[in-house]
């Protein structure tokens, strides 16, 4: 029997917040984690996996593991994967039950059964996968992790982890630089860590210690007003292409300064208990992109609107949207990027 579970105590973005655990939920948790047979996923080359995400071709995850750090993380699909060694386990809970376990601060009782505890695997066996695939692709990096980790990860892993991670991250950026025929997309929720000194050379920041090739798009995830300050951190990072993913967009972000931003993606949340995608907030971002000359890509309405409008999962097919959403049917790319040519920058 699992005891002393901490349900959501507060939070405007957390559905079911503050309710006590029910007996049925407690019983469900007793059998929540069960191993499932390994299935060989479809891959392109080595450890690059074909993606259903509209704005990339495949994913490459040389790093696996994370912990939640903001409300945007609360419905992260990766929470439903247990990462232990090379095996994955499915958490047999409904989406609502999963949410009920969360305190929204990245430290919750769910860590005890999902294994999503901040333990990180550096998958060196996957490091050279992009170099083996010679066909140009748009590659999203680290689908189930971040590219920046703070001191709390040293505590959750082992002594010397951050130093090893720092070196491994340099190798990842080195592979990106060598695989110049691909275009790599990276997102982080912790851009401020790129402005801190490195462990190897405290005289340099993390950003200053890394190469920033033309084929790397570096961005931040922003979904609430509290996260908007990450855009200022992004501007200080010397990436050739800087982008913002407003997904999941959870509220109106008001006035945005998009100076130095090359691309914006907007999207609603996925999952059976997805939070509402605020259409007027999305329209506001589109209008500001137009005013400030930034290309914008509206990815999906999310599963909340998919359910309301009886659309396909995630409501990502533009042709299915009703006509009153025509103003959101926009899919643009960074200036100079030729998507039809598999990711070459002109």
Question: What do these coordinates show?
Answer:
This protein is an alpha/beta fold. It has one domain. 21% of the residues lie in helices and 17% in strands. The chain is built from 9 helices and 15 strands. The chain has helices at 23-30, 95-100, 111-114, 129-132, 151-156, 161-178, 230-235, 279-292, 303-309, and strands at residues 33-35, 48-50, 58-60, 63-64, 81-84, 87-91, 121-122, 138-141, 183-188, 216-221, 241-246, 263-267, 296-300, 337-338, 344-345. The strands form 4 sheets. An 8-stranded mixed sheet has the order 2-3-8-9-10-11-12-13. Strands 1-6-5 form a 3-stranded antiparallel sheet, with no helix packed on it. A hairpin with a 2-residue loop joins strand 5 (81-84) and strand 6. It is globular.
The total number of structural domains is 1
**Beta content:** 15-25%
Structural class: alpha/beta
Strand order of the largest sheet: 2-3-8-9-10-11-12-13
Overall morphology:
globular
Low-pLDDT runs of 5+ residues are 1-10, 14-21, 23-45, 82-93, 102-110
Oligomer kind:
single chain
* SSE arrangement, N to C: HEEEEEEHHEHEHHEEHEEHEHEE
The number of distinct β-strands equals 15
Calculate Rg over CA atoms.
Answer: 20 Å
Helix proportion: 10-25%
User: How many helical elements?
Assistant: 9
**Nearest-integer average pLDDT:** 80
Q: Report the span from N to C terminus.
A: 59 Å
For the sheet with most strands, the description reads:
8 strands, mixed
């Amino acid at each position: 029997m699992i005891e002393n579970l901490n349900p959501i105590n507060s939070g405007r973005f957390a559905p079911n917040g503050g309710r006590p655990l029910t007996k049925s939920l407690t019983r469900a948790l007793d059998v929540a984690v069960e191993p499932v047979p390994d299935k060989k996923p479809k891959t392109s080359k080595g450890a690059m996996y074909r993606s259903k995400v509209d704005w990339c071709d495949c994913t490459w995850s040389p790093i696996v593991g994370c912990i939640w750090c903001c409300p945007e993380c609360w419905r992260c699909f990766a929470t439903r994967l247990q990462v232990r060694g090379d095996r994955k386990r499915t958490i047999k809970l409904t989406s609502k039950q999963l949410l009920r376990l969360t305190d929204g601060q990245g430290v919750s009782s769910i860590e005890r059964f999902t294994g999503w505890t901040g333990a990180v695997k550096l998958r060196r066996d996957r490091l050279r996968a992009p170099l083996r695939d010679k066909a140009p692709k748009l590659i999203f990096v680290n689908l189930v992790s971040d590219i920046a980790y703070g001191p709390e990860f040293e505590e959750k892993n082992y002594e010397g982890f951050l130093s090893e991670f720092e070196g491994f991250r340099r190798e990842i950026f080195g592979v990106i630089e060598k695989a110049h025929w691909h275009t790599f997309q990276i997102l982080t929720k912790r851009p401020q860590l790129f402005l801190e000194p490195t462990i190897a050379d405290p005289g340099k920041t993390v950003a200053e210690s890394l190469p920033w090739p033309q084929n790397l798009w570096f961005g931040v995830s922003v979904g609430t007003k509290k996260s908007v300050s990450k855009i200022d951190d992004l501007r200080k990072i010397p990436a050739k292409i800087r982008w913002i993913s407003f997904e999941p967009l959870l509220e109106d972000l008001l006035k945005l300064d998009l100076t130095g931003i090359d691309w914006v993606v907007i999207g609603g949340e996925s999952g059976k208990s997805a939070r509402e995608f605020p259409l007027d907030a999305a329209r506001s971002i589109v209008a500001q992109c137009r005013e400030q000359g930034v290309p914008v890509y509206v990815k999906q309405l999310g599963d909340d609107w998919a359910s309301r409008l009886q659309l396909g999962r995630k409501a990502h097919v533009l042709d299915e949207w009703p006509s009153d959403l025509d103003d959101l049917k926009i899919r643009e790319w960074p200036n100079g990027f030729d998507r039809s040519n598999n990711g070459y920058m002109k």
